[in-house]
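Researcher: I'd like a structural prediction for the single chain below. Treat it as a standalone chain; there are no partners to consider.
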Amino acid sequence: MSKKNVHVVPQGNKWAVKPEGGKPTSTHRTQGAAEDAGRRLAKQNEAELVIHRPNGQIRDKDSFGADPNPPKDRKH
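Model: Treating it as a single chain, here is the predicted structure.
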């Protein structure tokens, strides 16, 4: 997989982890489990993790790549 964003998105009554523009790589019963899987995939591929709300809106982002202009991380 290239350095595409990894998305955690609702899929029916489950949560899916999918690379941007691709098919889901895994599905999970809870958003938390999908976030964990997505975070591992994003770290492995030095990509950005994009977590969506149940309505599809973006809730959060976390970058694991070499960002040329990194913002100050206020979460960690």
